[in-house]
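Input chain follows. Return structure tokens only.
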Amino acid sequence: MQMNWKSYVNGYQSFLRLEKSLSLNSIEAYLHDVEKLIQYLEFSSNKSGPGQVTLKDLQEFLKWITGLGMTATSQARIVSGLKGFYKYLLLENIINKDPTELLESPKTGRKLPVFLSVAEINALTGVIDLSTPEGKRNKAILEVMYGCGLRVSEVVGLRITNLYFSEGFIKVVGKGNKERLVPLGSLAMNEIVHYLREVRTGIPVKPGNDDIVFLNRRGSKLSRVMIFTIIKALATKAGIKKNISPHTFRHSFATHLVEGGADLRAVQEMLGHESITTTEIYTHLDREYLRSTIIQFHPRS
């Protein structure tokens, strides 16, 4: 990393952590965007510091990453990250002109996320071996992900003290440490209760994990990768060919709510989306579902 960039990047990292309260994964993603620009400047022997970078430099940078085969979606993400970095520099009075102000992101079509039908959700949960402690835990995890629309980080970080069974809610700590209350359905609630009583009580819990709901057999919090692995294995076992991940359950939760006629603002609140525009993609999914249904079943189609 060029020396005249290092201190600014370190300052930006502290800003994201302390002022924005972002997760480590989000901070890494933002810093990676800036590091891509630094990599380009080094490649092209451009000695500019953050304050000397011009709009033309940034446009040439976009051409460079296009040449590397980067998709329009990835490029748009990087542009967004760079705009965030330069907003920080303006805020701190390190620069007085933002070179990203007129920088246009590549046009990207809104890609509809993969989601599972109710039958596919049932097929996945149906292949879980409930005779094992891990199977009982995994059933509870899947029911909570689908029943509450949680992010994978929210599932692994779920705390016993945030389970309000009598009120029928769970408290979730989402992006930027923002808390929200999500309704807990009876099926998901029952699976958590069974897991807590029949499995978790027999696990020797490691210090610091006493309040974590879902544990591995060694008594530690599950990793995000472990959830991915569990879901991939179950999909293979159930014969589901879709490329699914933990986030697929969140998409399925939202899609099925919108298809059922749920108010979009309520879905936004439950998902913890800051902007309604993020939630609106599920109305597109709904339209696409209706369109495919008409094509498949209407006699004139």
